[in-house]
Amino acid sequence: MTSIESILARQPRAIARAATLIENRSVASEALLQALWPHTGTAEVFGITGAPGVGKSTFVTALIRELRQENKTVAVIAVDPTSPFSGGAILGDRVRMQEHHGDPGVFIRSMATRGKLGGLAPTTLDLTLLLDAAGFNVILVETVGVGQDEIDIANMADATAVVLVPGMGDEVQAIKAGILEIADVLVINKSDLDGAPKLEAELQMMLSLAHRLDNWVPTIVRTIATEGQGIAQSLTALRSFKSHSKPKDRQRQRWIVRLEQLLREKLSNQISAEQIEEAARAVTSNESDPYAIVNGWLKQIRGTNPFEIDHLGIAVKSIDNALGFYRDALGLTVEHRETVVQEKVNVALLPAGKSKLELLEASDPESTIAKFIANKGEGLHHIALRVPDLSTSVERLKSQGARILNEPQLGAGGHKYVFVHPRSTGGVLLELIEER
Ligand code: ZN
Rg of the chain over CA atoms, in angstroms? Predict the structure, then answer.
């Protein structure tokens, strides 16, 4: 089995290896994700976040149990250093997690590294694609707190629950802004504690003062995760938000963000850290301005060399015969055919990558192509090079004594061209062209 097949067959070791490639943002992970892409798009992705000590892992464990009872396969991505999945929890939590150990329908991956360039969201999204392709029905992304990473991750999940416990006091105030951006569902865990009604009242008050752009009023669910209470209701609440929220719009929004990130990643990979370092020094010492530097980088990425082989001209006795080879046997396609009257030549253009083959056939016995074939037989007639500014090139060549055969004029395909004599070019008739 290839690694792709093993992943699609939901083999834990293959998935774990792929996850490592993704977390290391290795070059191989891109090809892997590309191959998996057609198999993605079916998993439900739910974010679960909350401060340490709210019983979040117990809640996640209870959710897994609930989903397994529905016969759903579940993957957990734990982006939480305090999570038992990430190895940072107290023994009791670990023991609870062992409930699902050895269940082939459950896969758990911890991702402990913070401070990644571009945040954790890109890696998390790629991991959800991997697990989605592997055929997990539900993916739970467990994070801690309500920071920027959590906001980004919540934005790509289908729905996100924020888990709270009574007795947090001022903490509710402190995370208020974050909660509003993240929570589609508010879970009051350990709701048998005395402070539960007070916390719920505080949350109700907060929600009544706020207004979300999508008009969704976050659902408040009371749970006692250790006893499995309120877990089914939490799941229902997450799913209600998912169906409320126009998943296509959300997905489109998610990919706008992710595509921008990918572009940024690709672009910044083209410029080395040393180059940036040097540029920062140059800006600081007023040797250069930052705008010129960035424009220079863009030119570097685009490739500033404007010279390019535009086409190869091949003199043939009969275009139709030659097409028997180039089109019918070789598989090239004819983009354009025309007769260039002033050259007494019939032309067929066959694109090949960024350049073309130009088949040339005499339309008159007095044509230079007819004379070429009479002297040398069929064969390579000229090389056409695209230049950025034809008149500048012509001036320079003339001043250097090169033999230009004609004044710039319009040729096949509507480009301006001149020919340079083989005596000046090392034996090849050279056509210089400039797009109109
Ligand atoms: Zn040509």
Answer: 33
In angstroms, what is the span from residue 417 Cα to ligand 1's centroid?
8
The domain made up of 308-434 has a fold known as 2,3-Dihydroxybiphenyl 1,2-Dioxygenase; domain 1 (3.10.180)
Q: Is the pLDDT of residue 236 over 80?
A: yes
Q: If you measure from the C-alpha of residue 432 to the centroid of ligand 1, how many angstroms do you get, rounded to a whole number?
A: 9
Give distance in angstroms: CA of 346 to centre of ligand 1.
11
Cα 407 to averaged position of ligand 1 atoms, centre (Å)? 15
Residue partners of 126: CB distance under 8 A and separation at least 6:
22, 29, 33
pTM: 0.66
pLDDT digits (tens, 9 = 90+) for 125-154: 999 999 999 999 999 999 887 777 888 888
How many angstroms is it from 315 CA to the middle of ligand 1? 10
399 CA → ligand 1 middle, Å: 24
Q: Which amino acid is at 222?
A: R
Q: How many CB atoms lie within 10 A of CB 37?
A: 12
**Rounded Cα distance, 337 and 347, in Å:** 6
For residue 416, report the distance from its CA to the centre of ligand 1, in Å.
11
Strands, E assignment, 56-132 = 74-79, 106-110
Q: What is the mean pLDDT of residues 370-387?
A: 94
Query: If you average pLDDT over residues 195-208, what whole number do you get?
Result: 89
- Report CA(304)–ligand 1 centroid distance (Å): 24
Say if CB 417 and CB 411 are below 8 A apart.
Answer: yes
Domain residue limits, the chain: 3-263, 270-302, 308-434
Helices 148-156 and 121-133, interaxial angle, to 10°?
Answer: 30
Which residues is 238 bridged to in the sheet? none
What distance in angstroms lies between residue 379's CA and the mean position of ligand 1's atoms? 13
Superfamily, domain 3-263: P-loop containing nucleotide triphosphate hydrolases (3.40.50.300)
Span from the CA of 99 to the centroid of ligand 1 (angstroms): 74
pLDDT (tens digit, 9 = 90+) per residue, 212-232? 878 889 999 999 999 999 999
CA–centroid distance, residue 182 to ligand 1 (Å):
61
The answer to whether 167 and 195 have CB atoms below 8 angstroms apart is yes
* Element at 262 (helix H, strand E): helix 247-269
- Residue 122: pLDDT band (50, 70, 90) is confident
